[in-house]
Amino acid sequence: RSSWLLLAPLLTPPVPVITAPPCSLCPEGAHRFQWIRNLVPEFGISSSHVKVLSSPAEFYELLKVQIKTAKQRVVMASLYLGTGLLEQELVDCLEETLEKSLQAKGSSNLRVSILLDYTRGSRGRKNSRTMLIPLLQRFPEQVRVSLFHTPNLRGLLRLLIPERFNETIGLQHIKVYLFDDNVILSGANLSDLYFTNRQDRYVLLQDSPEIADFFTELVDAIGDVSLQLQRDDTVQMMEGMVHPYQGDKMAYCEIANRRVMEVINSARTRQELLHAKTFHSSQQGSSLLSQQGSQASGGLKPEPDTWIYPLIQMKPFGIQIDEMVTETLLTEAERDARIYLTTGYFNLTQAYMDLILGTRAEYRILLASPEVNGFFGAKGVAGAIPAAYVYIEHQFYSEVCCLHQQERVQLQEYSRAGWTFHAKGLWLYLAGSDLPCLTLIGSPNFGYRSVHRDLEAQVAIVTENKALQQQLHQEQEQLYLCSGVVSSSTFEQPNRYVKLWVKLVTPLIKNFF
């Protein structure tokens, strides 16, 4: 059974048609994943351009350095920008860099584009919008701030649902931070917790112009169908664009689908042409090399040993690429392969749970203990969310036990005093290998929201380079080192007590968090 057949039922135009069973082309090692390029662009790079970061402080310092050295573009997509001193320092860095670019040339080439969620970015009197308005006022020609508003929050629903709770309907959840040709993929938002003591994942792709162009175009496409923040703190749509909650919903979603799929398909076509050109060049180079000796190799670029595949999930717009690829990876994982899967919010879709319980690979699933859950200690109803996650975890663990899968499927809880846990993604170890050859990193949490409600993006990084595989392995080990294995006794602890009302309400609301 080939991977491409599993994808067929989910494919909807304009997702490209897969023309051959891809797994039969390159079945060995990292190359077995080349079927993904039938759906999305494939970017071949050198592993030396990939750096795995490990701490919030390292992430924050890198953001500041990259902003200060940017010459052409700064593109940042996040759920929101916080309002504390650390976030203000980032805004100050942007202002300083924009000011320098103006002074250097009189008219600057530097462009700053920021994409946030409308509901989360508008929460409270002091919010993401008020943080960024001074930049819009000072540099109106260079700065763009787009606020995505889900088309599903409209009409009476929009009027009745209060602030904070309106964020459950759907969000802009993509996290990508891009500076000239350097791209940071992460699950972290632009907020002080994510710069200090909320553990996440972060990968820097250096000197990768094609990847940077792709994510610039993706953020532009979402920005074009988003509300534009004005200098007086009002918002308006671009001229001629359908409004997300006042206009026709179907028309809006069709336009959004078209804009995003244009980015994916045009990048895929570009990369295919580049791949063909590189292939022919390398063949000619080999011929010259055999005829003229080693002198002919001087102009040839090294063969890529690492491949980047951007995976987009925007179910409100009918785009399900990340879901398709993730389900196929879980389905095709062979016996004795190991999958390390982590999520800050353990609330897997039924499809993902069924695949984990019904397939052959070994699973080590890392999730947040109640004390490191981002909602721990929250006021009001939100304070019960960690208990709801405990209940969902207990139900899944019980199912694992009923199927006698405890050896193959193991849950582990991250616990670290004074920290919260927000890391998400997976690492895939092929059978017989001590190192991963594939990782998924980005914004999705593998839950209902990620698949059905929010705008999400992550990348699959596939590598055959041992040094990069070692980096990814160390990243995984470092996260799992702070965890304990879940057993039946875990749920007997006093802090795992779940009130009856939480048990009753959780099945009704689990699709909203």
TrEMBL record:
The keyword DNA repair does not apply. It catalyses: a CDP-1,2-diacyl-sn-glycerol + sn-glycerol 3-phosphate = a 1,2-diacyl-sn-glycero-3-phospho-(1'-sn-glycero-3'-phosphate) + CMP + H(+). Residues 1-19 form the signal peptide. Pathway: Phospholipid metabolism; phosphatidylglycerol biosynthesis; phosphatidylglycerol from CDP-diacylglycerol: step 1/2. It comes from the Eukaryota. SUPFAM superfamilies: Phospholipase D/nuclease. It is found in: Mitochondrion. GO terms for molecular function: ATP binding; CDP-diacylglycerol-glycerol-3-phosphate 3-phosphatidyltransferase activity. Its EC number is 2.7.8.5. GO terms for cellular component: mitochondrion. It is an enzyme of class 2 (transferase). CDD domains: PLDc_PGS1_euk_1, PLDc_PGS1_euk_2. Residues 168-194 form the PLD phosphodiesterase domain. One of its GO terms (biological process) is cardiolipin biosynthetic process. Keywords: ATP-binding, Lipid biosynthesis, Lipid metabolism, Mitochondrion, Nucleotide-binding, Phospholipid biosynthesis, Phospholipid metabolism, Repeat, Signal, Transferase. Belongs to the CDP-alcohol phosphatidyltransferase class-II family. Functions in the biosynthesis of the anionic phospholipids phosphatidylglycerol and cardiolipin. This is CDP-diacylglycerol--glycerol-3-phosphate 3-phosphatidyltransferase.
